[in-house]
Amino acid sequence: MDIRRTLYFWGLLAYLAILPVAHTVALRSLLLLLLLAVLGVSVLRKGWRKSLAWEAWSLPVCLPVVLWMAYLCLFPFWAEQAGPAWANLRGQWGLSILAWLIGWGGVLLMGRDGPSLLQLALASGFLVLLHLGMSLLAWSGLLGAAVPADMPLALMWRSFLSVVGGTAEVGWRWQPFPWGFRGFDPMHGNLGYTSNQAIVLFLCCLLFAWRSHVSRVTAIAAAAIVLCFVSVVIAYSRGAVLYGLLMAVLAGLVYQLRLRGAVTGGAAPSRPVGRKGQLVLVWAVLASLLVVAGLSFKKDSRWHLMADKARVVFLLVDDPVRFLCEGPDESMLQGLRHEMQDRGPAYVSDLIGGLNGDGARVALMRVGLVLVAERPWGLDGSRSSYKQLIEARCGHPPVMLYEHAHQGWLDTALALGWAGSGLLGLALLSLAVFGLRNLRPDAAGPWAMALLLLSVFWMARGFADSVYREHLLQMQAVLLGYLATRTHLERRSAAARHQSAAA
């Protein structure tokens, strides 16, 4: 590869790796500018395949994405609050558009010499590796005693120096395992989302490598999947554990229904199971996932109350707006105690104490639906749209104060209106369908499967949390854009080879 392609290759992987890492805004912006500059020079010098560029842009799958981009650019003209809308276009929405271009441009510039699926997965797992390393330091005692759930980097460094230098009250010795430790990032969602993204990519690598009997890639992908699950179990990220398991099940179903025993180019069906060692490895992965899932349920007590907290808010809260504005009233608490009297006073006390968690999220969803119905055109495109609207309804900051509705589709609708949320959904759905249609046992198969699973993951994840904002938008755009264009390139190359063989 020439210097431009080499810069883009490593810059793309570095950008993908540091996107979810806290306190790296300057670095990710610098990498984004570098990639844009390299892409711009390449376009000006026509150092890419023009035919592929036009074909990629003319793909039906690109139209919904382009419509989504156009809507983002036009939204400030009719936004209720134009000033913040323009600011957010220059910020999170504009950066996401640039990330789509970076993803598309990666394939148009590098072609099949771009990062492989395994390299993309390893880059996505960078934060997982960081977290596991910091957890090991905390466990070994090198970060001092009684390590908090999240620990700023400066404090980590000072604690490390004091332990190594012998000035700490407790020397270097093994501590109780740091369950709940999130590293230097107070938002475990950053770790959870990127871990799930890496799990999806590693699953695709695992299944296709297993199918082709590539033992080295199979082993790497299997070990990485287990480590990703271990990381989110340590961090007490319930959503990441649940969605990781769901994506593993979905990947298995897709493989079973679309790829198992499929015929490639008229050849005999490939064997679904190869060497005995590979079969043992897959069963070891499944057993490991069961173990880490069991650890999550055992160590994180929030699992035990989750269903009851959701049920209570559905059954006993008549006015969710008032519930959020004023908190639970005495009549509701009395009804809760009566409803759960067979569980014991300790359980009821824990349930009441947790109403500001999972229970409040149910109320947030109900309130979000009310606010969305009232605001079909959205507010100002900002991440604080829900907060502004609920404070206006309450007349004061709500007792249960949340920055957003913890539901991505509702938050997007509150910020950008029904059309904005719908166009985003259409874009993700079209990418998933494109991946499904191109899912065949050939060179395009792994890319198509990754595109399908990641599109489904981000669509589904939005129903449980607000994931269409800030750097998460860039994570989605750069990878989905690259996967879609790489799938098209592989299908185009396979068709050309088939025509040559037929001639």
Describe the structure.
By secondary structure, the protein is an all-alpha fold. Helix content is 72%, strand content 0%. The protein is built from 21 helices and no strands. Helix 1 (3-18) runs antiparallel to helix 2. Mean pLDDT is 85; it is low at 263-274.
Short description:
The protein has 21 helices and no strands. The chain is mainly alpha-helical. Helix 4 packs antiparallel against helix 19 (408-437), helix 6 (117-124) runs antiparallel to helix 9 (188-212) and helix 9 (188-212) runs antiparallel to helix 10 (215-234).
How does the SSE layout of this entry go?
Layout lengths: L2 H16 L6 H20 L5 H9 L3 H13 L7 H29 L6 H8 L1 H15 L12 H12 L23 H25 L2 H20 L3 H22 L16 H24 L2 H15 L3 H7 L3 H10 L5 H9 L1 H20 L10 H10 L13 H30 L7 H17 L8 H33 L1
Helix pairs in contact: 1-2, 1-5, 1-6, 2-5, 4-19, 5-21, 6-9, 7-10, 9-10, 9-11, 9-20, 10-12, 11-20, 13-17, 14-17, 14-18, 17-19, 19-20, 20-21
Mean of all residue-level pLDDT scores: 85
- What's the gyration radius in Å? 24 Å
Low-confidence stretches: 263-274
- The helical percent reads over 70%
State the order of secondary-structure elements, H for helix, E for strand. HHHHHHHHHHHHHHHHHHHHH
Q: Roughly how many Å apart are the termini?
A: 31 Å
- Number of extended strands: 0
What structural class do the secondary elements suggest?
A: mainly alpha
Beta-strand content estimate: under 5%
Put simply, the count of helices is 21
**How would a crystallographer describe the biggest sheet?**
none
Q: Give the CA-based shape.
A: globular
